[in-house]
Write a structure and sequence with these properties.
It contains 11 helices and 15 strands. It is an alpha/beta fold. A hairpin with a 2-residue loop joins strand 4 and strand 5.
């Protein structure tokens, strides 16, 4: 392996029938770092994780994880990784402690070691109080934490987390983020998939944006943010006819012209001045006597990322037409993050969900 790289993937391609799920994925994850694989539903995130964790074979391309080839040495890879799938894998009839004890025993630990190990993990993931309740009654966030704890039983050097917070409420998400941070703190390499830019920003050292089975951009969170811009201030005036005046009043707040959505009657401006810009916006509107019905400040979303990267915010619709024969741009398909990139050829993907949970 290239020393210092815990995950290397080159040209991973995978078809299901005549559909391409992956069209040549390249990834490099330095040891001890966190890669966020960011993309919409159907982009190929889970397929990538399944290949890297030896659950699925690539049609083409190669990958090493913890220095072992996923195709030639799957058992060696499995011995070094942890995986928390898109759907939590704990046994709902067992308590949190029993779940972790069971997995520890499956990994060949003695009863005593397994008991101690389970106790340590429960503590580390803030589950001590709930340790002896059956996990079926857990909140989404607690289940996720239990699942993460389970993925760490074998003390893996590389951990895959597939959409660790999808479906969680804000509290569950915050708790899960803390758990992931814990994990990273002791040097574990993490590849996590997410549909949330904010999450990738918060947890990942670098981000690969994937869509239709190719990496369309990669960089650090701040590089990506520079392309996508800061927060969005969205203003809805009481008088819809005042939209143009609102846009004019807000022009100075952002680098670009405010965007007017004639359908919703809102005006959006991208700013990197944070909450202070919100006050400025309201003052500017008051100065020209525009009354506001609604005002919001929000971080960029995945849609904003796609808009910035591809000039097209339209993400693929579920169950739509098959992809064209050549969907990836011919120029190598991956671009460094730059604002104002031109249009990418956008294929259409099909959504599918399945169970990807895995336990040794
Ligand atoms: N087992 C499978 N059989 C057929 N198609 C699949 C299978 N797994 C994934 N796909 C297809 O591959 C594409 C990528 O899926 P997936 O990797 O699950 O995306 P993501 O995890 O980013 O939502 C989708 O179009 C999906 O329908
Ligand atoms: Mg998935």
């Amino acid at each position: 392996m290239a020393d210092g790289e815990a995950i290397v993937a080159e040209g991973l391609t995978r078809r299901f029938g005549d559909r391409y799920a992956l069209r040549g994925i390249d990834l490099r994850v330095p040891t001890g770092s966190v890669l966020g694989l960011l993309g919409p539903n159907g982009a190929g995130k889970t397929t990538t994780v399944r290949i890297l964790s030896t659950l699925l074979r690539a049609d083409e391309g190669r990958a090493t994880v913890a220095g072992r080839d996923v195709h030639d040495e799957p058992a060696a890879v499995r011995a070094r990784i942890g995986l928390s799938g898109q759907y939590a894998a704990a046994d709902e009839r067992l308590t949190a402690r029993e779940n972790l004890y069971l997995v520890s025993r499956l990994y060949g630990m003695s009863r005593k070691t397994a008991r101690r190990h389970a106790t340590e993990l429960l503590e580390r993931f803030a589950l001590t109080e709930a340790a002896d309740r059956t996990s079926g009654g857990f909140s989404g966030g607690m289940r996720r934490r239990l699942d993460l704890a389970g993925a760490l039983v074998s003390r893996p050097t590389v951990v895959f987390l597939d959409e660790p917070t999808t479906g969680l409420d804000p509290r569950g998400r915050a708790d899960t983020w803390r758990a992931v941070e814990e994990l990273v703190a002791d040097g574990t390499t993490v590849l996590l998939t997410t549909q949330y830019l904010e999450e990738a920003d918060h947890l990942a050292d670098s981000i690969a944006v994937i869509d239709h089975g190719t990496v369309i951009a990669h960089g650090t969170a701040s590089e990506l943010k520079a392309a996508v811009g800061g927060e969005r201030i969205t203003i809805t005036p009481i008088d819809q006819a005042a939209r143009a005046s609102v846009a004019e009043a807000l022009t100075d707040l952002g680098h670009h012209q405010p965007d007017i959505d004639s359908r919703t009657g809102t005006v959006t401006v991208v700013t990197d001045r944070g909450a202070g810009a919100l006050r400025q916006a309201l003052e500017a509107l008051a100065a020209v006597r525009i009354e506001v019905r609604d005002v919001a400040l929000a971080p960029p979303t995945l849609d904003d990322v796609f808009l910035a990267l591809t000039g097209n915010s339209q993400r693929p619709a579920a169950e739509s037409a098959p992809p064209p024969a050549v969907a990836a741009p011919e120029d190598g398909s991956e671009r460094s993050v730059q604002p104002g990139n031109g249009q990418l050829v956008r294929a259409r993907g099909r959504r599918r969900k399945g169970a990807h949970a895995w336990r040794p």
